[in-house]
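Slide 14.
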Amino acid sequence: MKGIVFNLLEQYIEENLGEGKYEEILDGCTLMTKEPFVGPGTYPDQDLMAIIAATIKAAGISLTEALRSFGRFCFHKLSAQYPGFVTPYSHPKPFLMSVESVIHVEVKKLYEDASPPGFTYIDPASDRLIIQYRSERSLCQFMEGLIDGVAGHFQSPVHYKQRTCMLDGAVVCEFDLTFVTNGGG
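Slide 15: predicted structure.
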C-alpha cells in the first residue's frame, strides 16, 4: 500500500477522533514498518489493516462503517489535492468511468510499484453503470465510501447495490450504480 493512503488515514484519525489519537493508536499496534509512513513509500497492507483495526476499536465502530467513512474522506481529500482529475467532469458517471484509464494510469506512472484496484465497466444505460472491482486487498467497503464521496462531490445522488463480493468468494465485486436524474429520488 502506498504511503499516501497511510497519510490520509492519519488525517482521518486526527480529524475524527481528535488530535494526538493517531500516535496513541500507532503505539498500540504491532507494525512491520518502524519508520514514519511517507507518501511515495510502499508499506505492507497488514500495517494499514492493523491501524484500521486499532482505530475501529478506539472509535467503537464496525470495520464496514470505518472503511466506508474512510473512503468518503479519501475522495474528498484526494479530489481537493488533485483537482485536475475531477474538474473536467460535471457528473459522477463519466468521472467514475475515467478512473481506470486516467487516474490509475497516472498513479502507476508516479509510483511504479503501485497496485491500484482494477475496474471493468459495463454501461447498460445512460443512468446506470456497472463497475467490476478487482483487488487483492478486497476493500469493497472502502470502494463504497469512494462512490459515496463521488456522489457528494458532484452533488448528484448515486444509488448502488453490490451484486457480487470477493469477500464471499466471487472473482470480482460488482457494483450496480443508478444515477438519479433531476426530479428523481
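Speaker note: The radius of gyration is 17 Å.
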